[in-house]
Amino acid sequence: MSKLAPRPSFITNIKAMPEPIITLTTDFGEESPYVAAMKGVILGINPSARLVDLSHQIPPQNLAYAEFFLSGAIPYFPHDALHVVVVDPGVGTQRALLYVEVAGHRLLVPDNGCWTELAALAGQTPLVIRLAEPRYWRHPVSATFHGRDILAPVAGHLSLGVDPRTLGPQVEEWVRCELRRPTLVPGRLAGEVMFVDRFGNLITNIPGEALTMLAEPRRFQVGDAEVRYQVRAYAEAEPGTPVALVSSNGMLEIAITNGNAAQRLEAGVGTPVLVTQAEDPPPSESGEHDDPGADLAMETFSAAIPRRSSKRALRSGLFIALVFVPLISYSILATIALAILLLRPQPWDPFEILPDREGDLKGAKHQKQAAVLYDRVLPERPVPDKLKVELGRTIRVGDVEVTPQSVELRRVEFRRPGFAPEPALDDSLVLHLLFQNISQDVVFSPTDPFFDRSWKGIASGKKPYTGLNIGRDHLWGGPLPWTAGPQPEERDTIAGQQYKMLQPGEQLTTLVCTDPQDHVGRLLASYRGHLIWRVQVRRGLVQVHEREVSTTAVIGVQFKDTDIRKPAT
């Protein structure tokens, strides 16, 4: 309980408003009939009321979440609005219902502290009245639905100009719910996630202005995950990059550019967040590998590409120098040359060489499979610049050249062996691609669904690499799964899609498309800007530690919304 003094003597001007604003915040859920019932009661008393839904997705009985949400939303409403809040785990008990005026805003709330952060932010004593006048209630009053039978009818009457002082006695004590405060000391900021928006962005309780207590670069720890990039806006980082920034409400936010941080980082409300001084700057994203980039590549492929450490090379050199004294000069030079050869940055990005899970190299000299850890590289990782290509241009990756020819919005036709063609019910975005095998002696199929992990990430829980990024939305978009069989004549396809083993020098034209159930046309109708389509392709054979293995790569096809050919209307 909390007591504030002195008792305020003011009260909002009492008058009926022509179109009063009444907002609703509950934990009922969007599809709940309970919300509709409350609206019906209010409109039955005042049909001209304007009802505004703030949110009905407050986690059930989560008062701290409701308090954080209200403190970030209500201050932006006009002062004559009335806010009805039903997050009420104590319904049916002796807890009171309150009319509150704080910082010029009016609320109807349960006496459980869900509003008190507003008073703390305003730094002033609120006016609080306990609802005790049954003539403004709906009868009979349910023991489990005070939102409908007390708060909603009181809101309706207040919107007609009823004097709040007639609702019940003014009180000086009420329940206070204090949000957990962050620990802000030089060198260390510790807080937690307070809110997760619909994009999966994590809003913390650490004020953005507190970041100035730490010099750059900063290290952000979210649960067990680490975030090393701080930006001013999402677009400053490539898609898939975990970033930290100051949110629009002035608090520290953790996000994934064009992705979902809550899912990717396995974080939610209450996840601890720690900000400290970084010991070294984050790795470069330019696609040109400095030492950290080389370390990332070597870590990813450590199972296939053994790498000696600099300490081992030094010990070897000292051993040689001590044992072969007459040849010490030669030994030192040889050791230095060997260290440079072994420790130089590898020329590839992790997306440039991914293992081919099964391979499809019938007719090739070697059919050995990659021994790297396939799942170490996350699909959300940004595609490096050297693996990006624009429409009409050609990119070479290993033994294959890829030319994205065009992109169009249309309805596709599904074809399944033994069945009549089936037209899709909605439009798909279709990307046309030209592949050419430029190897001398390797025969392979450049694209098929088997190495792309799973259909839309559903079957095994692993997300496919192939997909389309439209702003924050990521849509699956690649070959269809093998529901009938692995042979080309047994596979489900879309009209225009081809699977073929390419001989050296041979070309193949095929396509990938988005799932019609993703309704891509609706997203494109309001989107303006650049898009990128990730496409995983088989790149041929790679020499890895004295053996040849079949590998794939992920390229990024870049285009603009104006490049999309659309059906005539």
Q: Biggest sheet, open or closed, and with what strands and sense?
A: 10 strands, mixed
Q: Show unreliable segments.
A: 1-14, 284-314, 358-375, 455-460
Principal-axis shape equals elongated
* Strand residue percentage: 25-35%
Overall mean pLDDT? 78
CA radius of gyration is: 31 Å
Helix fraction by DSSP (H/I, runs of at least 4): 10-25%
Domain tally: 4
Number of strands: 30
Structural class: alpha+beta
Treating each run of at least 4 consecutive H or I residues as one helix, how many helices?
9
How far apart the termini lie comes to: 64 Å
Topology, element by element:
Blueprint (H helix, E strand, L loop, with lengths): L1 E2 L17 E6 L6 H13 L4 E6 L7 H11 L8 E5 L10 E6 L2 E6 L5 H7 L4 E4 L15 H14 L13 E2 L8 E3 L2 E9 L5 E6 L10 E5 L2 E3 L1 E2 L11 E5 L4 E6 L4 H4 L7 E6 L13 H10 L9 H14 L4 H16 L10 E2 L32 E3 L4 E3 L2 E11 L2 E3 L6 E2 L4 E10 L29 E4 L2 E6 L14 E2 L12 E8 L5 H6 L4 E14 L4 E13 L9
Helix pairs in contact: 1-4, 2-3, 7-8
